[in-house]
Amino acid sequence: MQRVHVGRLIEKYGDDYQAMFMDTKLNQMQHSVATLEDLCKRYHMFGDKNPLIVSG
């Protein structure tokens, strides 16, 4: 579920983590800038796949 929210933030703001942080509608969990950056990096690493299920 979190991948959906992170995906929407990336679609709207690209890599502008400060703008993501300020958007309280899409960033309902009120993640910090550093947390958003980590979430976005993981999102780009795994895409729409579930990282718990990905076999490597």
Automatic annotation (TrEMBL):
GO terms for biological process: ribosomal large subunit biogenesis. It is found in: Nucleus, Nucleolus. One of its GO terms (cellular component) is nucleolus. Transmembrane segments: none annotated. Pfam families: Nop16. Keywords: Nucleus. Coiled coil: none annotated. Belongs to the NOP16 family. This is Nucleolar protein 16.
